[in-house]
Design goal:
The protein is mostly beta strands. It contains 2 helices and 17 strands. It has a domain of 74 residues: Ribonuclease Inhibitor (Leucine-rich repeat, LRR (right-handed beta-alpha superhelix), Alpha-Beta Horseshoe). 4% of the residues lie in helices and 24% in strands. Helix 1 links the parallel strand 8 and strand 9. This is Leucine-rich repeat-containing N-terminal plant-type domain-containing protein.
């Protein structure tokens, strides 16, 4: 584990001799240059984290074809100068965690058809084109998944999302959501975290009803960006902390229910001064 240091230059060739290495984590360093060919020899790897590194050029993921024990693969470009090629990769391993973020993929990798044990998949920030998914078999495989717990589909929203009953983490930032949050989210009974950052909800959303779920944490101060909100229902969750003053800036709000949570502190005095409650 050499993660989160300030190592520079290239991955040293002497690592070729570590043929029994099971875990290699060089996340968040200043390494640069072409993708290290030395990784081809690490066929005992089970965990490989190469994310947030400034590798450049083109890397064919097929060089990991003999890594039959690999379960976790984390790869992202810190400089957006790396292009990962996946077309010819037919992994002999069953991955549990896969991150290919900022890798200029452009298309969804076809090898995902054979990955039945995935629990977390991140394909964000790849400028994917076409429908999601682009292959019907992959669609069937993911929609019936019984193990997937985390899914980052930033930039894409499949209509079968509500069928993955095991999903605990859903990241769907930077989409084009407008008036409605997808109704399929009602079926995600295991959901613990949802991220809808950088959408267009603030322009058109009128009703936000999240009653009787298991949401926890604080009400985000960005709530004031939902400028057209008329109804805000957060009853029956585990929200905590202070009630934000930003709620007073929702000029069109008429109904708000924050009951049955675990808020602390004082009720914002500004709520008693806003005129729209009395209209």
């Amino acid at each position: 584990d050499l993660s989160s240091n300030n190592f520079e230059g290239h991955l040293p060739q002497c690592l070729n001799h570590l043929t029994h290495l099971k875990v290699l984590d060089i996340f968040n360093n200043q390494l640069s240059g072409n993708f290290p060919s030395t990784l081809t020899n690490f066929t005992s790897l089970e965990y490989l984290d190469l994310s947030s590194i400034n590798f450049q050029g083109t890397f064919s993921i097929n060089s990991l074809a003999n890594h039959s024990k690999l379960e976790v693969l984390l790869l992202s470009s810190g400089s957006n100068m790396l292009q990962v090629k996946t077309e010819s990769w037919h992994p002999t391993s069953q991955l549990k965690v896969l991150k290919l973020s900022d890798c200029q993929l452009h298309v969804i990798p076809s090898f995902l058809l054979q990955q039945d044990h995935l629990k977390f998949l991140d394909l964000s920030h790849n400028k994917l084109v076409g429908n999601f998914p682009i292959c019907g078999k992959m669609d069937d495989g993911l929609r019936s998944s019984t193990s997937l717990e985390g899914l980052d589909i930033s930039g894409n929203i499949p209509n079968w999302i509500g069928n993955i009953s095991t999903l605990r983490v859903l990241l769907m930032s930077k989409n084009y959501l407008e008036a409605n949050i997808p109704v399929q989210l009602n079926h995600l009974k295991s959901l613990e975290l949802i991220d809808i950052f950088e959408n267009s909800l603030s322009s058109k959303l009128i009703t936000l009803d999240l009653r009787d779920n298991k949401f926890f944490g604080r009400i985000p101060y960005q709530i004031n960006e939902l400028s057209n909100l008329h109804v805000l229902l957060l009853r029956g969750n585990s929200l905590q902390g202070h009630i934000p003053n930003e709620l007073c800036q929702l000029a069109k709000l008429r109904i708000m229910d924050l009951s049955n949570n675990i808020f602390s502190g004082s009720i914002p005095s500004c709520l008693g001064n806003v005129s729209f409650w009395r209209e």
